[in-house]
Amino acid sequence: AQSVTQLGSHVSVSEGALVLLRCNYSSSVPPYLFWYVQYPNQGLQLLLKYTSAATLVKGINGFEAEFKKSETSFHLTKPSAHMSDAAEYFCAVSLHGGANNLFFGTGTRLTVIP
Amino acid sequence: NAGVTQTPKFRVLKTGQSMTLLCAQDMNHEYMYWYRQDPGMGLRLIHYSVGEGTTAKGEVPDGYNVSRLKKQNFLLGLESAAPSQTSVYFCASSELLWGGTEAFFGQGTRLTVV
User: Fold this and answer.
1) A-chain residues near B50 (CB < 8 A)
2) Helix H segments across chain A?
3) Cβ–Cβ contacts within 10 Å for residue B15, how many?
4) A53 vs chain B: nearest CA distance in angstroms?
5) Which of A30, A104, B40, B62 is 20 to 30 A removed from A4 (C-alpha atoms)?
6) Which of A42, A51, A99 sits opposite B103 (nearest CB)?
7) Max CA distance (Å), chain A
8) Residue-wise pLDDT tens digits, B26-83
């Protein structure tokens, strides 16, 4: 069975500080991994995804994530937080890479302090 | 650039009432999905469709029915609403069903059952 665990339901950072959102996955085989972002009153939007090509994945809005098989992790980072990054972030895992096989974490709400 | 559109955006139902949520996509995607989002639980798949006239059960299908009579539309029905169905419902669509394909989400429908 696949699952993801997101450590920390709420994370606060100062504007300009490093953003680090943690995600650990459980899967019997190398999975597909995703980060989605949900801005207030909006649907989810894909930030980036890991599809076994490169372990360091770059996404939109300056975010990136590194797939570490030995640690079963796929943490999301951004060097410098911006006020517009305030949102809820979801990590998700899929064995086959399809949205009918997508299992989401419980989400991390990011607050950016001016 | 409408993408995925859900109607209605908000609804309050009394226990036992029925309703239908409509999802429309203009990207000519073959695959469509209904998820529910509950606090502290992430998104969970209710039903999905791999093409016009076909539907399949997801992780939490009980109490819901779906229909895909036209490729661009995916309807979610609640025959007899229960308070446990209070949730935010998201529709999504994708071009493929594998390979890390991106899912495009609507803005959600907030349903309260009293």
Assistant:
1) 100
2) none
3) 11
4) 11
5) B62
6) A99
7) 42
8) 999 999 999 999 988 889 999 999 999 999 999 999 999 999 999 999 999 999 999 9
